[in-house]
Design brief:
The complex is a heterodimer.
Chain A lengths: L10 E8 L11 H16 L8 E4 L7 H9 L5 E3 L7 H14 L5 E8 L29 H15 L3 H15 L13 H6 L2 E3 L2 E2 L9 E9 H4 L7 E10 L15 H12 L8 E4 L5 H9 L8 H4 L18 H4 L7 H13 L12 E8 L4 E8 L5
Parallel strand pairs in A: 2-3, 2-4, 9-10
Antiparallel strand pairs in A: 1-7, 1-8, 4-7, 5-6, 8-11, 10-11
Chain B lengths: L12 H7 L4 E2 L10 H10 L4 E5 L5 E2 L13 E6 L3 E10 L7 E8 L4 E4 L12 E4 L1 H7 L4 E3 L3
Antiparallel strand pairs in B: 1-4, 2-3, 2-4, 5-6, 5-8, 6-7, 8-9
The chains are: A alpha/beta, B alpha+beta.
């Protein structure tokens, strides 16, 4: 079995930053948010933009994403990758950047994202025109929400997962968000509030769905060797895996079992770690069903037990397993695609920079991103220097 | 053999095999490429629920395409579904304007799944039986179903 084991610990994240988040107004562009976040990440790492020789981006706002970002920032990359697998792209970029750095194709990689989805009029963003014939759109699903609603309904049918258990995911996210000053939603939220909100696509209400915000992020990655000389405490990539099972939700073989089973197994194999080694978990929570599916598929509980696993505040602050410690896509920030923010929070937790929401003494963080309609799954394990 | 009717007739696998047409290979045919989507639409407008059957691994294939997603064979032949199936999952939507409707995943008895809608229902129960409505599908130009529970 090829595990890519030689990648383990070979690169580190050395700079992370968000741009301004929330609602930046109609006069700020998505590209400017990319530039703002990149500037902050470079400052944190103590690097010049001229050090960047690998660029990794995806965008629903501009074509040729890596070329657009490189042109604006004045970077002349010798390696670029615009892998576009929805919100999972940026964790995918992290794995791809590690491979490129290890192969000597670049030395300092920038992963960047920016979106003004909220200020641009909301709506859930689709990545560019889709010229492929759809056998789903004539039935007017509200995508992506309806796809996740179908998965939710099936999970409830097969495993007895309840609306209250799903609402617990949203409530836990809100409690974490209340500890994060830049989180978009801060007001109290109860299980009852979630259940009584407007139904978007049954059984999901608007509070089961991620936010529509503006925001950008940047992540800088370099070799473990070079990372030692930089300003920030390195967060090493210990493992990474990706898996894709379908494009359309009607073609997903089993709506209760995602390709995270495979991406997770690949990441754990590369890292040589088990779920029990994970101290903090950042999961792409586009909808409340997502963390339930991923906690099952990534081995934190048995298949079908995700609903009871998240109940009783277990993934909330002071719960047994810290999940989505920034407030997640449900309450912190979700500018169309969320993947990069998972990495940013995991790295900050490993550095111990998270203030009142800091998890006590974490050494291993799991990041899991999802893209499309449960189509693309990417898992990464990050660790501090004690894990090397 | 085009499907004739309002009522989908239950078919045995043997009967279904008889309706199966000669496979057209995208690899060897000298004819210009005709999109399977066009053929599909034509058959729906004739009142059928069409799907493809892989001549190599016998998988039922939907949506239509040029190669089998299971084994990769380019030998696919058209077949007509009996139109009976079971609801795999369903979601209901209530637009601000217009009537509520459902978006439903249906497992057809021949072994393929599609997204459709069960007409005249706001909520559709998972596991319930549904059947193809040739008349409504022909009118709409897309496959539509009705509940099999009277």
């Amino acid at each position: 079995v090829t595990t890519g084991r030689s990648l383990r610990g070979s690169v580190a994240v050395v700079g992370v930053a968000e741009s301004d988040l929330g609602e930046v107004g109609p006069d700020v562009s998505a590209l400017e948010l990319v530039a703002q976040a990149t500037g902050r990440a470079l400052d944190e790492a103590g690097l010049s933009k001229n050090a960047i020789d690998g660029v990794f981006c995806h965008s629903a706002f501009f074509g040729q994403p890596t070329t657009t970002v490189s042109g604006y920032l004045g970077i002349r990359p010798r390696y670029q990758d615009s892998t576009a697998i929805g919100g999972a792209s940026f964790v995918d970029h992290l794995g791809h950047a590690a491979a490129a750095i290890q192969a000597g194709l670049c030395e300092v990689a920038l992963i960047a994202y920016g979106s003004t989805q909220r200020s641009s009029g909301g709506g859930l963003m689709v990545s560019g025109p889709d010229l492929t014939r759809s056998f789903e759109s004539p039935y007017r699903p509200r995508m992506p929400a309806s796809a996740y609603a179908l998965a939710t309904a099936r999970h409830m049918h097969e495993y007895g997962t309840t609306r209250e258990q799903l609402a617990e995911v949203a409530v836990a996210a809100r409690k974490w968000a209340q500890l994060n000053p830049v989180a978009f939603m801060q007001e109290e939220l109860t299980v009852q509030d979630v259940l009584e909100s407007r139904v978007v696509s049954s059984p999901l209400t608007v509070r089961d769905c991620c936010l529509v915000t503006d925001g950008g992020g940047a992540v800088l990655v370099t070799s473990a060797e070079r990372a030692k000389d930089l300003r920030a405490k390195p967060a090493y990539l210990l493992g990474y895996g990706e898996a894709t099972s379908h494009l359309d939700i009607s073609q997903m073989p089993d709506l209760t079992r995602t390709a995270a089973v495979d991406s997770g197994a690949r990441a754990y194999a590369m890292a040589g770690l088990q779920p029990t080694a994970v101290d903090v978990v950042e999961l792409y929570d586009a909808f409340t069903i997502n963390p339930i599916l991923f906690l099952e598929d990534l081995g934190f509980c048995e298949k079908g037990e995700g609903g009871s696993f998240v109940s009783g505040g277990r993934i909330a602050p002071r719960g047994d397993l810290p999940v989505n410690t920034n407030g997640g896509g449900l309450s912190y920030c979700h500018p169309g695609m969320y993947g990069i923010f998972l990495i940013i929070e995991a790295v900050r937790q490993l550095r111990g920079e998270c203030g009142v929401r800091q998890v006590p003494d974490p050494h291993v963080a799991l990041v899991h991103a999802n893209g499309g309609t449960l189509s693309n799954q990417v898992t990464a394990l990050l660790g501090d220097d004690s894990t090397l | 053999v085009p499907h004739d009717g309002q009522q989908a007739e239950p078919k045995t696998p043997l009967a279904e095999a008889r309706t199966e047409e000669q496979p057209v290979s995208a690899k060897t045919s000298n004819e210009p490429l005709v999109s399977p989507h066009i053929e599909y639409d034509t058959r729906v407008k004739e009142g059928q629920l069409p799907f493809q059957r892989c001549s190599t691994c016998r998988s039922a294939v939907h949506p239509p395409r040029l190669a089998c997603p299971t084994c990769g064979s380019q030998e696919l032949s058209w077949a007509t579904s009996a139109g009976t199936g079971q609801v795999y999952s369903s979601t209901s939507l209530s637009p601000r304007e217009g009537a509520p409707y459902n978006v439903t995943l249906i497992d057809l008895d021949e072994g393929f799944r599609l997204m459709s809608s069960v007409e005249d229902r706001e909520h559709v129960e998972i596991g319930s039986r549904v059947r193809y409505s040739a008349e409504r599908s022909r009118e709409a130009g897309i496959p539509l179903f009705v509940s099999d529970v009277q």
